[in-house]
Write a structure and sequence with these properties.
11 strands
C-alpha cells in the first residue's frame, strides 16, 4: 500500500456517491455522465484493491472498506479545499471603490467589510456614500467598481426587497393634525416621493419639517417627535415604532435593492465582495450573513 495515490477528483466523486447512495444522482450533482462516475469508482476501487460499494438495486451501500475510505476522503478534501482557498486568496490584491446609500452604510456595510477583510486582507475597499442616482452616475463614469442602489430603475442584480414603512415615536404628530410633518432626505430620495405622493392621494396635508442627508439625522428628528419618516424597515431602530393604516397612514411600496458592477478589469475582486454583500442583504439582518 506504500506509495498509493488517491486522486482528489476520484475522492470528490466518491464522496458524492457515498452521500447520495446512487451513481445517477451523484453524476447529476457533478455534471458528469453515469458511466463516467462508474469508471471513476472502478479506478478508485482498483487503487485501493478492495470493493467500496455493494449494490442494492439502484442504490449503493458502502462496504467496510468504503466506510474507511470515506472517513479519510472527507479529511483529505477538507485540507485540500482549505489549501486551495488560501492560495487563491493570497493572489488577490487591489482596491475596490464601493458605493452605497448612507442608510445601508450604517446598517449592513460595517459587518460586510469586517468579514471581507478577514477573508481577503490584501484587498482594500473604499466606501463612498451618496444617493443612488449619484452613485449610478459615478459607476457609469468609471469612478466606482461596485455599488448598491435603492429603487433605481437601472437594472442590476436584485439582492433584497426592502419594505418602506413609516417610522414614528409616541410624541409624533399623526394624521388629524392640520399638516403632517415629515423627516426626509433631499429631492432625489424615492422614499420622499413615495411618501408625499401617497399622502396626496388620500388628501392628507403634509410638509417637510426636517431634511437631512443622513439617516441618523432623520431618526433623531423622529425621536424628538418633530416628524414621522418614510424609511426602509431594516433601518427602524428598537426605540421607534412602525406606523401604518391604524394611524391613518398609507401603505408605501417595497424598494428593490440592487447590486451593480462596473465593466472593468476588477471583476475577480468585485465578485468576491459581491458574495458577501449578497449574503448579508439576503439575510435581512444587519451584521449577519445568514446561515
Amino acid at each position: 500500500m506504500v506509495g498509493m495515490h488517491l486522486p482528489i477528483e476520484l475522492l470528490q466523486t466518491f464522496v458524492k456517491v457515498a452521500e447520495t447512495r446512487n451513481f445517477t444522482a451523484a453524476a447529476k450533482q457533478i455534471f458528469r455522465s453515469q458511466s463516467a462516475v462508474s469508471q471513476q469508482m472502478k479506478r478508485l476501487a482498483d487503487t485501493v484493491g478492495m470493493a467500496l460499494f455493494d449494490m442494492e438495486g439502484k442504490q449503493v451501500r458502502l462496504t467496510p472498506m468504503g466506510e474507511l475510505v470515506l472517513e479519510h476522503a472527507l479529511k483529505i478534501l477538507k485540507v485540500h479545499d482549505t489549501a486551495a482557498m488560501a492560495i487563491q486568496r493570497s493572489g488577490l490584491k487591489g482596491k475596490i471603490r464601493f458605493g452605497t446609500p448612507e442608510d445601508y452604510a450604517m446598517l449592513f456595510i460595517p459587518g460586510i467589510l469586517a468579514r471581507f477583510a478577514r477573508e481577503f486582507p490584501e484587498i482594500r475597499v473604499d466606501v463612498i456614500c451618496r444617493p443612488s442616482p449619484a452613485l449610478y452616475a459615478d459607476l457609469l463614469n468609471g469612478e466606482l467598481d461596485l455599488m448598491i442602489s435603492t429603487a433605481l430603475d437601472a437594472g442590476g442584480e436584485e439582492i433584497r426587497k426592502e419594505p418602506v414603512i413609516w417610522a414614528g415615536s409616541d410624541a409624533a404628530r399623526l394624521p388629524g393634525a392640520e399638516s403632517l410633518p415629515l423627516a426626509v432626505y433631499d429631492q432625489d430620495c424615492i422614499y420622499r416621493h413615495w411618501a408625499t405622493s401617497a399622502l396626496e392621494e388620500q388628501h392628507q396635508p403634509c410638509h417637510i419639517a426636517f431634511m437631512s442627508p443622513s439617516i441618523a439625522g432623520i431618526l433623531a428628528a423622529v425621536r424628538s417627535g418633530l416628524a414621522v419618516a418614510p424609511i426602509g424597515l431594516s433601518a427602524l431602530p428598537g426605540d421607534l415604532v412602525q406606523l401604518g393604516e391604524a394611524q391613518g397612514l398609507p401603505t408605501l411600496p417595497q424598494a428593490g435593492v440592487c447590486l451593480h458592477r462596473a465593466d472593468n478589469l476588477k471583476k475577480d475582486l468585485t465578485d468576491k465582495l459581491a458574495v458577501h454583500v449578497r449574503q448579508a442583504f439576503a439575510s435581512g439582518r444587519p451584521g449577519s450573513e445568514g446561515a
